[in-house]
Records
---
Amino acid sequence: MIQFLIDTIIRALDLALIAVALSGVYSLIKFPNVALVQYAVVGAFVGMLLQQAGLPLVLALPVSAIFVGLVAVIFNVLLFERLLTEGSAIALIGSLALSMILSAVFLLAFGPAAYRFDLAVAPAMRVLGARITVHQLSTLAITVAALGGFAAILFFTRLGREMRATATNKVLASASGIDTRRVINATVFLSGVLAALGGMTLAMRGSVSIDLGTQMLLPVFAAAILGGLGNALGAIAGALVISAAETFVTNTNFGVLTGTDFLFLPASYAQTASFALLVGFLLLRPSGLFTSEVSRV
Amino acid sequence: MSEFLIHVAAVSCLYGILALALNLQMGFSGLVNFGLIALFGCGTYGAAFAHLWGWPPLAGLALGLIFAALMGLFFARLGARMSEDYWGIATLSLAEIMRLVFTNEQALAGGAQGVSGLPVSFAGLAGQGAGLSRLALYAALLAAAFVLCQRITRSGFGMALKMMREEPQLARALGYDLGRMRAIVMVISSLMAAVAGFLYAHYLSFVGPEQLMSHETFLIWSMVIIGGIANNWGVVAGAFLMQFALAYVPFVKDWLDMPSDFVAATRLVIVGGGILAFLIWRPKGLFPERIGGSHG
Amino acid sequence: MTRTTPALATLLAATTLLSAPAALAEITLGAVIPLSGSNATPGEDQRRGIEIAVKEINAAGGVLGEPLKVIVEDSAGKPQTAIDAARKLVTVDEVPLVIGSYSSGITLPMGEYLVQEGIPHLNPASTSGLVRNIGDSSFSMVGLDNVSTEFAAKEVIANGWKNVAVLAVNNAFGQGVAQEFQKHLEAMGGGVKTSVLFTGGQPSYRRELQQLEATDPDAYVFTAYGTDAALIMQESFELGLQEDAPWYSILITMMNKDTAPEFKQGLSGMDVGYLGAGGEGYAATYEADYGETFLSAYGGYAHDAVLFAAKAIEKAGSTDKQALLTAIRALGDEGFTGATGEIKLDANGQRMSQPYLKFKVEGNDLVQMD
């Protein structure tokens, strides 16, 4: 049971940062930016390169996150502002196309092999019978800090107020003197930072290869949609629900059903669980699990 | 005509059928389907099951068509309840579920291994006869699919589809049953995709879950966007253009003496870059939709 | 008129010259191997084996008096890419024989395609039992996994491990190994508590490892390729699975090079033999040319596939497909000695006897046990 809880939380860590980024940007520009999962991979690779270049990890993480934030703003200004004039479906397709191009860049630059940070790997500690590794704990701390920081910006700063105002009613926000374009690009920057941290913490727990973005796409979407797209903090709850479903599918011994000692479903069915949950959920509640707090401001 | 040229032309014809199917959905009806490859997969796996169970190949076609019609109807039902980008994500998820199930269930068509050794159509003919006969068959089916699409889109029903795409509220107010229209479009285009899948399986001689990767769907999207959304001539031209461009990448690699990852990367850039470039600079594609046209 | 004719003639001659040499001046074979993807390391080993074989043959005067050339294409570890590559070799380069590939998941569909085209196919590495059924014109230079898993099962029993958990990659090779190994182990009185198949290329294999751990086995038996295996070993170390029970690798050279030494202490395993009697020359050339020892066990088999093909073409006296097939069968019957020992083919065109070796890891290297 403890192991189940811990596995669920660890998996939620994989998803939460990127899902929050996705949801946060959606609240302002109303299209789900698929390329965010690739920004996470960019963050991980850049962080590794910085570490190889001699930067200590505590510096490599924020430098790479800021770099990816800027990249996100550049793509937003050059690409998505233009595509959005054609409609959200066009922008969505554009973000898919951008993801493919980024995949090609990763493939040429890094090849198909998996990479990891240069971190000492130690055997796991036992906590109440469940296993936890040092890196799981350190990335948990990073993730909580990043999410806390984002929430603080959203609720306790002028920028946060402007973000919420713009999300609620862009025209009105603009009329009351808010520079909505600046607010949107600030949010895009933050989303890039969060996604990059998401990618780097994932890589710290395991490894990163060029397929990571594609593999994360649907679970992250499932988490963000379940939390109510546009409701940034709802995405955290969405991530927990998705992780619990995935962990249930892979950790449960179904041997009882077939009369054998052990029967586990293939671990890649974890994703199937989240997709099925997503589709079923979309059928029942097309607007998400939680009413958007942002819209009630 | 060299055999390689025949090969590329034959595959282009099959992708032409897929591009027409997607065009019917997203071009004319505004249905953002990111799971088209699953409908294609109904055709390939229909062929695979028939081969495994020792049925004649044509029974596999029937099986594939039944799968595809059911899946198309299910997609359409989903579409009734959600907005277009949500539907896009939902269809993408369904296609991925199908791929994951076929990857992990060995009892179903070999799991990750897939099914190989399917009979290749016209394999008995000597020399270039086999390749040319296949090309002729695929070209004839492409022509038939084209005529069908032209007839649909120029009919009153086609007009109603465009209204559903542009002004769904108005269409509903005018008394059109959008759910039924969506279902009809999805079933017709799903059947087309399944036919292409069935022929592809009996061309490659191999069916496996890797053929259902989502980037295959985006390849078809690139054909539609580059050729011209809602223009049947355009999307067929787009299919040929993309297939020929992709087929010659390995030769460019040999010529420039590039590393072996170059081929995969260049293909991604051609598809992704093609989509982006056209969306930005020529969103209506090479052959823009003809507005108005000859509606009765 | 008189002026244009010589010009035309020159032009004609030039076109003939430009197009002809490939067909006339050399014998060209094709090979499809994984140069990219997670099997790029053994693929590179295969490429080196082929390169050495071509050099040896050309140094000894070529084939039928012509120089030999092998066009190497990348399978990228994907069936579709491999079939497309084989199609290019057959239709554009018009090779009389194709060698390939590495993993059975690729070799099967590609081999079936080649059989349908009537092009002789030599399998230099894939060990799935299904390879036997590819078809008449397909031949294996390596013994299949019904033999190798029996060897592994004997080892496991001899080590006193009665109940084991099996982890294998989800493709034809892994499926075959898991099934065959279980069959042999049960016949010897042991048991498999669970068999988990994993999909390659994942960022983490914790879930699979936890499933294995839940069955509390005497030992973990696994088979995985390159970088996937490296991550599995790292995570099993992190999760403490390596403390609980020993790990045993089937075809250990597939994963040893990519795995860091601290994550594979105490690992043992088995693989096909690198070298047979008479293979010392090959090993010496390899180390001289590439400055290191073999990357995997499979370069020698690719090397032998080229030698075998060249010998068969000599025997056939031409590159005509029918004559070549007859020659390959005849050569398989009488036996042929390459770097990996004697290659004799059975009625299905599969290699009959196959040397296997036991290994254990010491530091970063594999040490042979007897």
---
Amino acid sequence: MFTPITFASILPEILILALGLLILIFEPFWKEDQRRNAGWLTAGGLLVTMIVSLLFGRPGEPTATLGGMIRFDWLGFFLKMLFMFAGAATALLLMDHEKAGKRGEAYLLLLASLLGMNLMAVSSDLVMLYLAIETASIPLYILSGFLLNDERSTEAGFKYLLFGTVASTVMLYGFSLVYGFSGTTDLVEIAAMFTSSNLSPLLGFGVLVLILVGLGFKVSAVPFHFWAPDVYQGAPTPVAGYLSTASKAAGFAVVLRLFFIAFPDFSEVWMPILALLAAISMTVGNLLALPQTNIKRLLAFSSISHAGYALIGVVAFSELGATSVVFYLAAYIATNLLAFGIVMAFSRITGLEEITDYAGLSRRNPLLALMMLAAFLSLAGMPPFGGFVAKVFVFAAGVEANFVWLVIVGILNSIIGVYYYLNVLKYVYLYRMPGEDEEQHPVPLTRPYTIALVMLVVGVVLIGTVFAPWFGWSSDGVFVLFN
Amino acid sequence: MVPLSWYLMFAAALFSIGLFGVLTRRNAIAILLGVELMLNAVNINLVAFWRYSDVMAMAGQVFAVIVFAVAAAEVSVGLALVISVYRRRNTVVADELDMLKW
């Protein structure tokens, strides 16, 4: 049973676990002011993990390992790389967080949830899937409520936990019914059983709705989005960035695998539901983003609308559609982490989070303002940044699958989006601080921030300009969903 | 032998009671109790389905055991967060936690 390929298939997870133990061992020996080094260790360790996995853990032919619990294929591998990249960037952003950065547990919890997300990307069995989702979620509940002396943070953790447990339990009830109807927990066998057993579409609809509650919560699609703005605002900013990128992308990984592999026979049932969810998510997310004054809440609503855009690719239910989702996730992870990283870097110095507080940032720190320009234009979907190409592919997939109305809704929403993203940039570039003495109030960046933010900007620009290889990897990945 | 549908109806009723509790109760502890009821309904489903299908295939039982373990982890984290909220705010009533609003 334990052949070399078994170990190769979970190589990144083994290394992440070892890294977590390493932090547990080292952290008690460090003095208070050295503890932030755990962030360097985490980020460096994740980088090493990525390199080692690239060298020794590449998948060949798609195989099932660990008794069918895990699929070892390119889709999982590419997504794992994205998650680990996001984890490394988050660890760097966490380092100079005033209260969380010097606590080794924060990095350990980050790694634990990363482990769960990696498994979410590859699990091909309902049992493993549930376990992976919970492994990813439970550390995130704790991280959201990590700042025990901060009322907002404890409240965020509390709300996230209540919404999260209920949503995942409803999904689990759906899983138990799927197991009952098909008699198996293996995703591939479930599809085969449903093909031969002709379950009534009404029952299929009920089960899919139960499952969608949990997954909709994970990707924060409307109407399961209520937690997102509150949690993003209250949680430590790097954690909020991680929640809105890696956690959401992991949710999409599950959506792809579950719906494309286990429920292709019910595509007529779930395609309209998801199309509706996509349309509402985009519209509600964008419209509610308009009146926001707090930048983290603005980004929260923007991330709800981005879940809607990415869902268009799922709805298309085609190879191009799945490819565009994976590509969208890559672009979105880099872009949104960059946006949250900038918010973190700014509020660390100033302690402020309102949009109006960003007035005059271009004079206080030109580099930071330029990176903010890249992040927000990419979110708005402007070339030459990643967000533009990602949107083009998603919309193309939608048109190809004859969901023209959905694409029109998407394009109208992108226009609304441009308004509020540019509104923030207006404060950054056109307005000046009260008193017009920006030179007296610089916003310096520490080294971890510079590294993380520059890395992310390079990612955003690379995905937007040299998009062919990214598209190629995405399309190599989703090949397994259709064969 | 009791037919399978009885177990499923029982589980569905338990799940609905739990969900009702979650949606109507304002006390955080009561909400967590509702979640526990829902998880128990899932376990009844899983074990009943396992018993009435291929008994040699262990997937259903393994699933139920994993659900216990995860439920325990979830509740312990949940209670810890409830305590941390209580220490800051002296309340565990969900409606009164409304700092984060737009």
---
Amino acid sequence: MEEAFVFVALTMNATIRVATPLILCAMAGMFSERSGIIDISLEGKMLGAAFIAASVAAVTGSPWLGLAAGIAAASCLALLHGFACITHNGNQVVSGVAINILMSGLTVVLGIAWFQRGGQTPSLEASARFMPISLPLSEFLAEVPILGTLYSRLVSGHNLLVYVAFLAVPLAWWVLFRTRFGLRLRAVGENPKAVDTAGISVAWLRYRAVLICGLLTGIAGTYLSIANNAAFVRDMTAGQGYIALAALIFGKWRPWTAFGACLLFGLLNAIAIRLQGVDLPGIGEVPVVFIQALPYVLTVVLLAGFIGRAVAPKAIGEPYVKER
Amino acid sequence: MFRTTLTTIAGAVLLAATVASADEIKPAVVFDMGGKFDKSFNQGVNDGVMRFKEETGIAYREFEVTNETQREQAIRKMAQRGSDPILGVGFAQVPAIEAVAKEFPKARFTIIDGVVDLPNVQSVVFNEHEGSFLVGMIAAMASKTGKVGFVGGMDIPLIRKFACGYVAGAKHANPKIVVIQNMTGTTPSAWNDPGRGAELTKGQFDRGVDVVYAAAGGTGTGVYQAAKDAGKLAIGVDSNQNYLHPGTMLTSMVKRVDVAAYNSFKSALDGTWKPGFQALGLAEGGVDWALDEHNKALITDKMKASVEQAKADIIAGKIQVHDYMSDNTCPR
């Protein structure tokens, strides 16, 4: 019993680690897409931020400067996306894909030029990273059965950015559904003409939305390169930006359901990692290939069978052109 | 008379010049997906060819493959430009080398870690199972929990060969040892996924493992980082990786790919290059375990003595280490 409990707690722990960048990216995508800007470039922004954060942290030895640089880099990319899609009414998918391809190549080229390590950044010392922090009382409460174990094993002992990700969800919900800015943001994604008629600038609202998106993807990228790992490696985002986008659609563009979808993807991944090489009762050892396909198979089954129709914001993907 | 002498001298000089340029070789190397700075397999090859360049002053062409379709293109391009010998790195380049070697029968090719049976190809393989046996023994002796881990890169017979030798060595040192094995993936990206490597390693630590052996190319850096963060021990592979994290790196299973790479170029220069098959094991110094100033504090005299004993026994044939690739099974 105790063993099973520990197994569950450890799997949950891994889930949290894997889900953190997904959550941040899904929230980022939500702000952008709710305002009517398709953001396929979550992946590229995260990759760019991961690279810049790792480079700055390696040179200065400060994780905070790394984080700031990561956010700045992602925000620049977000502004670029905004400049193409909002100011110049460009195609949002094309602009997003362009950013992804650009970052995939540019990070490696700059990495080779700056550090001569084949596109990797130098390994960071512990002081240049966001290390796990144990919350107050966690050692003391570890002795308390169930609740204490949960607190000390699950809640405590993650790095700062994990907590930021989990706080981002209620915050995003509050901003979107409980503030005037959120109301306008949602409105501009549904019916920009009405917002414009009310005398509110569509472009300025959308720019603010993509900037929030840049901020959050910047944190996600920083998490990947200097909190969860200790260096930037070529293409280290490994498609997580797309998974986050899928989670967002899966969660019907709503914060809590998207959060749930991210946790589900994280859980499936964590289980896949843990089930490798384990003898399951009655089945025996499951082949690695099957275990690794499991998250994707389950995603398809869940999407096809259990999640109803996901309705996108009405004005998504359409550049707003004022009638003259 | 004077004129003829001059002509003869000029002719001799000219002849000497041609001979000298015929002596020069134009070697090339094509690295595989991990990249030449993977701190492991490809980097070992890079060290070898750099040493060749430093010693002889002969420059070489190089290419780092970043996706599967580039291998054959890169090797063919080298052959078209007249490079000779051409060094292919890694089992995955076998089909590419095979195809190009047939098209350019006069060029010489060397493949490391794979076998191509053609008259102009030299195939160098290593007895990784023997080296893995030794580090398996060290892992089992260093483990306090009685559980040791293995993280492989891509799930292929070659990596199973590492795993199988490792398990055999661990069991040789401690028959009751538990070995937990994980593979990072089933595609070549598994050689360069430190995030997943770290996650797999944390999973093993959670299950009680306290020594982990990575045979996973660039993915290994994530494994070692996770071991360092958790205060556990890790074993490096291919290159001597002890220097990466002193105090965490217990030892490394050294595969002298640098020597193989160097020898390929050097023998071509000396004219002693021969096609065919070479297997480098403990006896030939092709594989070994690494002991240096970075890990000597972790290796006790007793561990050292029993590993050296086992090494002598393997060379003498008293211990037979099973080679997974001979029958694609691993005895339990």
---
Amino acid sequence: MEKDKTLWRVAMLIPPLAVFGILVVWPLFSSFYYSITNWNGFSADYRYVGFDNFLQIFHDPLFTRAAVNTVIWMLAAVIVPTGLGLVLALLIDSQVPGASVFKSIFYLPICLSAIVVGQIWVWIYQPDWGLLNTAINLVTGGNSHFAWLAKPGTALYAVIAAWSWQQTGLAMVIFLAGLTAIPPDLIEVCHIEGASSGQRIRQVVLPLLRPATVVVVALGVINSLKGFDILYIMTGGGPFNSSDTLAMHMYNESFKKYHMGYGSAISVVLFLIALAIIFAYFRQLRKVDEIYE
Amino acid sequence: MFKTTRRALMVSVLASGLMAALPVQQVLAGGEVTISHYFTGDLGLDGLKQIFAEFNKETGITVKDSPIGHEDFKTGILVRAAGGNLPDVFSYWAGAKTQFIINSKSLHPIDDMWKAADLDAIVAKPIADGATLYNGHRYLIPFGYHYAGIFYNKKILQKAGITEMPKTWDEFKAMCDKLKAAGVTPIALGSKNRWPAQFWFDYLLLRTAGPEYRAKLMAGTASYTDPEVAQAMELWKQLLEAGDFTKTPNAYDWTDAADQVQRGEAAMTLMGTWITGYWNTNKFTDADYDFFEFPTVKEGVPRAAVGPVDGLVIAANAKNMEGAEKLLAFMISKPDVQAKWASIQGALSANEKVNPKTYTPVMQHALDVVKHAPAFAFNYDLATPPAVSEVGLSMFSQFLDNPGEVQSMLDQTQTAAAAAFKQ
């Protein structure tokens, strides 16, 4: 009987494992393999080049710029939605009028695909009739035609704003779930003891929101590492590579310059960075579990 | 009432088997050719559907079509090649891009088909020599080609009192000054996707250093730090600094620039003849626009024409090689098919049998210019290998944003281009 059960379990696991193997594990190992070749993506002829592609990374100024941008992207794409999500969650939890409507509105962007969000923000940033310049001109009475996505100084940050707009809703919902787990008695005690709102949030709510914060930050990091599509649709890494992240640089090298071997080497580096972050995340999760056990 | 006997079951199985076999038989009679291309505009798709239906009627071969948008096609076809999943036939740009995939042994040579269909007697010689021959073999049929000229809004030029089109660089600059005095930005440029800027570099280099030097630069035997390149960039810089271009070109697409000219916010734009297809569908007809050739900059330098050639190629591992060759021969050798396609795309046909009267007056003018040009050069991103053109196109965008730092940009471009040529 027990043997039958085991057989069934194995049989049920085979289809998802096969899909995972074909779509994730096989391409992953293929990338490792191609990263030590000079394959151009088209040719059947390519040769082993050892670690040349990895050494090239150290002489590639575009890689350095993309790495710096990736750090900026990850920090901003985590800090901004986490901060804004927390503020919104606290406001909605304080039972402001129309709280449930605001909750739905703020959550809505997360239901849209990154491509749709990117396109909406491309229109918002349009220099001549975009919402942003129109609003600025209305407020200041000026005549700004600033091209937010076409200037190297603002392109990356303009995409980060769009990304944060979408991700804030997710952070807000997780924080709201965390807030409901805080015992109401504890908040009542704060009131009875005469704690101010600031003291209550700083000394009671925020420490108790730590598990939710870990989840929000971890999801933020993982999502930001995957954040390629919105950048692709909004700037494509431009103007002139100024908003390239490592994922975008990998794409450009592989599919525009036909340097599939070098592009694979960048993807391996990106994979190792992601692995290190996820490893650190699981360690942190274990620590949080230990605190609450 | 009805009993399912074993015999009845067998009969029904046999009957359904026969019925199922019928369409299979039909498909086998003609076969199927798979094709992928970047002609995804409404008109282009409809036109191709009609052409494929005619091909099916004539040969019995079905064409299975999978179109992809122009920009996505550039990477989409590579992904299919990487997966060993190329269609039998696909559209591609003649020049360095085609050379690149030929060097990768991904294409099937069509010398025999070329001879059998007597394409030497059909395809215009300069296009046949420049666009179809690679490593001594024919690989591509030119499905249509374009010419890049300076397209202008007739009314705007008339309003500014311009009746004679400029023949020399000085006349061109004087024309720009006149337009600015009339309150119109002379030149619209939408370089958001980078490539629209390349025509300025192409023509300025061709008109100052000549086609031979330009061919050397494209092949990596000349340097971006040469005085010839610096001179071309300097002329471009002078126009930018004189305020002759629309502001922040990198924020706009080429269609935005075309719209600016149509609306009269700018007077002209340097673009390929596909702009005529775009304008015609926007109810801006050739009564409203025309073009003139890029002016002479240096006396004695041959006035080459610039443009891309859209081709069709066959994958080296095509499943239906015979059908694919038949399709290519059909596409190029039928003057009515070529004329229809040229009119839809705003392109010129490489088939010399196409009656020029089927073109609009503007396109007839373009055909005349190309016929009399001493050389036909592919535009930058089709003339130099993809890894190098990526570097150059980014440099053009950077230059448009900050023309003051052109020298350091050229130094960096040379370093990156030299590395790309080595790989």
